[in-house]
Amino acid sequence: MSDSRALLDQAAQQCQQRGVRFTPIRRRVLEMIAEASGGLKAYDLLDRLAEEHAAARPPTVYRALEFLIDQGLVHRIESLNAYVACPCPEHTHGFQLLICRLCGRVEELHLDDVNAQLSQRARDLGFRVERQTIELLGHCEACHTAP
Fold first, then answer.
1. Which CATH number fits domain 96-145: 1.20.58.340, 3.30.300.70, 3.90.950.10, 3.30.1490.190?
2. SS3 of residue 115 by DSSP
3. What is the pLDDT of residues 95-142, one digit of tens each?
4. CA 53 distance to own-chain centroid
5. Would the pLDDT of 53 be above 50?
6. What residues contact 146, with CB distance under 8 A and at least 6 apart?
7. Mean of the per-residue pLDDT values for the chain?
8. How far apart are the C-alpha atoms of 85 and 74, rounded to whole Å?
9. H/E segment holding residue 99
10. CA-based angle 8:15:7, to the nearest 5?
11. What is the Cα–Cα distance from 75 to 62, expressed in whole angstroms?
12. Quick one: pLDDT band at residue 81, thresholds 50, 70, 90?
């Protein structure tokens, strides 16, 4: 999968520029997420990782996920309690996720005007946003048009 290879190379470069460690475990967790067709749950990641590393435990996976999220390399799909690779980790603005309920495909959008409007409205109401997650659940084109 050349797309996941490019994503991993970009992630390694980004981590190096930021002076943070992109350990083999972090890299492997990102690789597994990037190669998945939809989001992966933490325990699915743990099961796969345990096949390769007998010492893998839940904290190992959760620490790797926390790092990858902090670096903008992975997003948590709140409604599914799953994780998906960010296709453009250099994008520092908010995002929206389109999630197909049938096949699990996840598409990332960057509608900055939507984020700006929400942020402005929150500020107007005196609300301090810590994290924003916009998820749209439905059916992708392939599933919608499938017989």
1. 3.30.1490.190
2. helix
3. 899 999 999 899 999 898 998 899 999 999 999 988 888 999 999 999
4. 23
5. yes
6. none
7. 91
8. 4
9. strand 96-100
10. 20
11. 13
12. very high
